[in-house]
Amino acid sequence: RLGSAAEPGSRAIQGGESALPGSLLFSAGLLGNLLALFLLGQQRLRRGRPPRASAFYLLVSGLAVTDLLGKCLLSPMVLAAYAGNRSLSELWPGGGEPGRLCQLFAFLMAFFGLAPTLLLLAMALECWLSLGHPYFYRRHLRRRRRAAALLAPAAAAALCALFCALPLLGFGAPVQYCPGTWCFIRMAGGSAPARGYSVLYASLLGALVLAIGLCNLASMRSLYRMARRPHRRSGPTAARAPAAPRMEELDHLVLLALMTVLFTVCSLPLIVRAYVGAFAADFNEKADLTALRFISVNSIVDPWVFIIFRTSVFRKFLHRVFSSRYNSSAHTKTSSLSA
């Protein structure tokens, strides 16, 4: 067993492991994020001149840039380890166990696992405020949306970096995982500070996912109320019917919901492993590696979800489904009022 959490001093990569899966995942993540950024740029330019960017647009762009940066920083280290048949701890030793490169890799893994969650939370809050509290949003946030969309992620990134750097300062412990090409915080055994930090990290991740889910549910409720809210038509035969939904907000909400479901699925294995390892000292290398792969796959699949969502076929289908439900509701309510 080489490169495991229980044996952080391993020098070589575990036999039988290939660099092909890592190379394919890196290529898919790189291509997906670049295409997502290209589509976001095309969205701004499709009307001839760049319109003023919305806060949601800036946050989605920030999420794509964050995912792209994470892939470009982490994947080359993994590929270099495979190319030299040396574990991360041996590529740049020194600085105490498990080596400087492994410590850097663990910090980056923790940061890029947490930072996208904060951006998703900012997107969920923006969507909830614009739908549920439109007057407050227009009065206090809409005019300052560019500053808010830039300053809030910057402040969140700084706090996230400080939190993820705690293991380098002694609270928590970075460790090398099997097969020697992964490093992350220790999730099983170790000292009390190491176990405490893993539980704190998993709890923070879980709390953010829960907050995003609650914001999405509140936004869905506001969108439903908006569609059911009656408005008076003009003309002598005026009748009250449900107001037409705002398709832009619907697009934002569906995209956010898809990304939230994806991130929840990718985060749950890590959260479960951190709690199990902290309280039961369960040394399961295969389960740990699966959890790490799940959290890293999120940044690969995220941009492809956005790309598929931006296709005209998918959006026309979504609008057709929602419009048919709206028209049916409007017809039912109008008929009942006329009767």
Automatic annotation (TrEMBL):
Location in the cell: Cell membrane
Keyword rRNA-binding recorded: no
Xref: Pfam families: 7tm_1 (PF00001)
Membrane topology value: Multi-pass membrane protein
Residues spanning the membrane: 20-41, 53-84, 104-129, 150-177, 197-219, 253-271, 291-309
InterPro entries according to UniProt: GPCR_Rhodpsn, GPCR_Rhodpsn_7TM, Prostanoid_rcpt, Prostglndn_IP_rcpt
Keyword Cytoplasm: no
UniProt entry keywords in alphabetical sequence: Cell membrane, Disulfide bond, G-protein coupled receptor, Glycoprotein, Membrane, Receptor, Transducer, Transmembrane, Transmembrane helix
GO BP terms: inflammatory response; positive regulation of cytosolic calcium ion concentration
Any one Gene Ontology molecular-function term assigned to this protein's record: prostaglandin D receptor activity
Domain G-protein coupled receptors family 1 profile: 32-306
Gene Ontology CC annotation, any one: plasma membrane
Name this protein carries in UniProt: Prostaglandin D2 receptor
Organism expressing this protein natively: Gopherus evgoodei (Goodes thornscrub tortoise)
Organism placement in taxonomy: Eukaryota, Metazoa, Chordata, Craniata, Vertebrata
